[in-house]
């Protein structure tokens, strides 16, 4: 089966600063792939380059269509979802309004089913539907960010450090939710994370990014057992 996402030779940066050099990775149908890396390794830059927020060279093919050269909103229409870093919710809007914003591009008659699905996937959000997003806990806001991105029914969801700022138990719960959503909806996910221990529990495949290069790749369990990953990212 052809992959959902195939990235080759991805090079990107900011002005004259090149951050990513020759990054290659693939995400298969229904897969969760994680990119691990320390602060400043280029994880956020990778997602920005994929979703079209910064210019890039190379090749990024989503379900057979080249994305480079297309604007960010065109990439979203082709099925690329992005749950950005730092709880990208509209804090003054309610949970329900945030979810509806996520479904703006859906045909109007599909919105009720998409809302039902979002609350079905994240039942914790149901009693909070009329609460302003800014008054949710950190974990609830991360769930809302993911649920909102899923409203657009992406083929592939990009997730930027969903564990950021969360306590370990909340992170564990959120990652279990991500794995369940992936299994139930079949949505492929590309996740960038500093929290290797949590991310490797749910990843089918993973890559380690250092200074804008991929230096190591393998299945989630291969990486979790790799001595240099254990030393550098798992603190073992
Ligand atoms: P973190 O976990 O700290 O967010 P990261 O792996 O996501 O790290 P990036 O945010 O991709 O790292 O940053 C990679 C490099 O690009 C860093 O050296 C950073 O200083 C630089 N950088 C990031 N954003 C910009 C920008 N808007 N303009 C210039 N340089 C930037």
> What is the level-2 CATH architecture name?
3-Layer(aba) Sandwich
Order of helices and strands: EEEHEEHEHHHEHEHEEHH
In what range is the share of β-strand residues?
25-35%
Tally of DSSP helical segments: 9
Give the distance, in angstroms, between the N- and C-terminal Cα atoms.
37 Å
Helix content: 25-40%
* Gyration radius from CA atoms, angstroms: 17 Å
Name the average pLDDT.
Answer: 92
Q: Major sheet: size, sense and barrel closure?
A: 6 strands, mixed
User: Per the principal axes of the C-alpha atoms, what is the gross shape?
Assistant: globular
How many domains, as an integer?
A: 1
Low-confidence stretches: none
Q: Could you please describe the fold and organization of this structure?
A:
- The protein is 36% helix and 27% strand.
- Strand 4 (56-62) and strand 5 (65-66) form a beta hairpin.
- Helix 4 (111-121) runs antiparallel to helix 5 (138-151) and helix 6 packs parallel to helix 7 (196-202).
- It has helices spanning 43-51, 72-77, 95-102, 111-121, 138-151, 168-185, 196-202, 220-225, 227-232; strands spanning 5-14, 17-27, 32-36, 56-62, 65-66, 80-83, 156-160, 188-193, 205-210, 213-219.
- The protein has a single domain (3-234), classed as Rossmann fold, CATH 3.40.50.
- It is globular.
- With 236 residues, it is an alpha/beta fold.
- The N and C termini lie far apart (37 Å).
- The strands form two sheets. The protein has a six-stranded mixed sheet, with helices on both faces. Strands 2-1-4-5 form a four-stranded antiparallel sheet, with helices on one face.
- The structure holds adenosine-5'-triphosphate.
- Adenosine-5'-triphosphate (ATP) binds at residues 14, 17, 19, 37, 39-45, 194.
- Keywords: Amino-acid transport, ATP-binding, Nucleotide-binding, Transport.
């Amino acid at each position: 089966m052809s992959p959902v996402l195939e990235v080759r030779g991805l090079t990107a940066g900011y002005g004259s600063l090149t951050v990513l050099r020759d990054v290659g990775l693939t995400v298969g149908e229904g897969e969760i792939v994680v990119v691990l890396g320390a602060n400043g390794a280029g994880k956020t830059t990778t997602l920005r380059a994929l979703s079209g927020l910064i210019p890039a060279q190379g090749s990024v093919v989503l379900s057979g269509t080249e994305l480079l050269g297309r604007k960010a909103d065109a990439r979203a229409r082709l099925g690329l979802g992005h749950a950005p870093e730092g709880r990208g919710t509209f804090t003054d809007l309610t949970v329900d309004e945030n979810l509806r914003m996520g479904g703006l591009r859906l045909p109007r008659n599909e919105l009720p089913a998409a809302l039902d699905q979002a609350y079905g996937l994240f039942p914790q959000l149901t009693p909070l539907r009329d609460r302003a997003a800014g008054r949710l806990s950190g974990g609830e806001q991360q769930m809302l960010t993911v649920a909102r991105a899923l409203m657009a029914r992406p083929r592939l969801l990009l997730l930027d450090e969903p564990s950021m700022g969360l306590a370990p138990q909340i992170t564990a719960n959120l990652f279990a939710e991500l794995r369940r959503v992936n299994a139930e909806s079949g949505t492929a996910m590309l996740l960038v994370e500093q929290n290797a221990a949590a991310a490797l529990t749910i990843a089918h495949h993973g890559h380690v990014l250092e200074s804008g290069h991929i230096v190591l790749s393998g299945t989630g369990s291969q990486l979790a057992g790799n001595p240099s990953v254990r030393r550098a990212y798992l603190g073992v």
